């Protein structure tokens, strides 16, 4: 899978992170949460970022100036893709549990919301991407459903309601679903919560296909262009601008026993 790694710079750590050793371990480096996305063209509509509250996240030195926050698994992959100064080596400076990252404020490159908060999402997989997921509730049914749950019960999820207060942003328009495909699909498929995994998988499939084949950009540098045309252009523009980098992972490697 060829993802885009999005660099979301930490501008204010959560209370839990603030009271940890993180500042001294960073030794002056800037920290970035790195989100892995397959939809670079939707980055205009980021409203927050998600981590798995029960997952472990490392803080890895990129060089003397920067550090990335992601799973160890992702850092090991990056180490072989020229992401870090020292090829093939991972230098972990610190470790967080996902729940300690919740409430951290980060920059969201390209988004009309320049800064967003880190929120918890139970369904983040440790085995995919970086374990950090940037959230686009206009175009991702999972993100919209999770945010709806968080807004209903902020105390239960131990979050401040202001952290999930940003509304979905129109990014892509499709003839069938208009400008808010994710909320439309959540309604149409009667999805009640982020726990409705089966319907959410179906909604995701429809949203991917509709967005890619029939979507037109409603915002940004490539407004009016088809999603198919805009997608690689937005990606290149972010990579050139130094806010993103290519991140690949070996997908479902099957080791044959018979050789
Ligand atoms: C922003 C975005 C905007 C995404 C959208 C999707 C959509 P897939 O298709 O199953 O391979 N993601 C990335 N890593 C994880 C993880 N570890 N656990 C759970 N979700 C993860 O999934 C790739 C997408 O799933 C990624 O692209 C990321 O969310 C999320 F409008 O980034 B995406 C219809 C989907 N729309």
Automatic annotation (TrEMBL):
Ligase among keywords: yes
GO biological process: leucyl-tRNA aminoacylation
Domain of life: Eukaryota
Gene Ontology molecular function terms on file: aminoacyl-tRNA deacylase activity; ATP binding; leucine-tRNA ligase activity
Ranges in coiled-coil conformation: none
Keywords of the record: Aminoacyl-tRNA synthetase, ATP-binding, Ligase, Nucleotide-binding, Protein biosynthesis
Family: Belongs to the class-I aminoacyl-tRNA synthetase family.
The protein's name in its UniProt record: leucine--tRNA ligase
Native species: Cerrena zonata
């Amino acid at each position: 899978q060829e993802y885009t790694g999005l660099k979301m710079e930490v501008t204010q750590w959560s209370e839990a992170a603030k009271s940890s050793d993180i500042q001294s371990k960073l030794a002056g480096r800037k920290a970035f949460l790195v989100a892995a996305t397959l939809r670079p063209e939707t980055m205009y509509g980021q409203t927050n970022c998600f981590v798995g509250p029960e997952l472990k996240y490392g803080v890895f030195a990129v060089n003397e100036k920067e550090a990335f926050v992601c799973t160890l698994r992702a850092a090991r992959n990056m180490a072989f893709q020229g992401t870090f100064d020292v090829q093939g080596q991972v230098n972990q400076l610190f470790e967080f549990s996902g729940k300690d990252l919740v409430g951290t404020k980060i920059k969201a490159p390209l988004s009309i919301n320049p800064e967003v908060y880190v929120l918890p999402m139970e369904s983040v997989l440790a085995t995919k991407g970086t374990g950090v997921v940037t959230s686009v509730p206009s175009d991702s049914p999972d993100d919209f459903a999770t945010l709806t749950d968080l807004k209903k019960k902020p105390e239960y999820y131990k979050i401040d309601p202001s952290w999930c207060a940003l509304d979905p942003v129109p990014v892509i328009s499709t003839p069938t679903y208009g400008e808010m495909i994710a909320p439309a699909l959540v309604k149409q498929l009667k999805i009640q919560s982020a726990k409705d995994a089966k319907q959410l998988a179906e909604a995701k499939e429809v949203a991917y296909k509709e967005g890619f084949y029939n979507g037109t950009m409603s915002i940004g540098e490539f407004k009016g262009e088809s999603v198919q045309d805009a997608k690689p252009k937005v990606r290149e523009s972010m990579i050139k601008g130094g806010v993103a980098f290519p991140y690949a992972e070996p997908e479902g490697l099957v080791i044959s026993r018979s050789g």
